[in-house]
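B., you asked whether I could sanity-check this one before it goes into the benchmark set. Here's the sequence:
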Amino acid sequence: MPDRIAGMIRADIARPPVPSVPLHGGCHCGAVRYEITARPKAVNACHCDDCKRLSGATFGVYLHVPKPALAVTSGTFDTFRRTGGSGHTIPIERCTECGTRMWHLPDAAPDLVILCAGTLDDPSWAVPTSHIFTEEAAPDAVAASDALVIEAFNSTRQALWAHFDRIYSVSS
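And here's what the prediction gave me:
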């Protein structure tokens, strides 16, 4: 029987190194393109019901990126606003052409972009270093054995960032 911590199956998962910047990505149709010029602060999986619905999957995977490090090189956006579980408004930017959800711009963290990892040209390295809202996780959800797992996200983002730094200070 696999180990379970905070509702998550724990497993030894290979963790590729974070690639050198700049990182590039875009939407499904190619109209939106972007470049990230700073190393992400975290790779986070969110298991809340909102992220499940927004991603069409059992959880969403996101990069925490300093807002000044994100440069949009082409494309336009529609902005959808929703209220998160914290009560804060979360603007979500989507490609106006194909509707791909690109990133969130949380009002509670105006200097941060929560970028959808699947929009990276190469998301293969983006193994989450943290999982939040695992109390809502699917029964088959798996977290790397070294990932920070939080049942209900009541921590600060700094805890996620510090854990990312601890993991990657050893391997990259």
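One thing to flag: Helices lie at 49-55, 157-171. Otherwise nothing jumped out at me.
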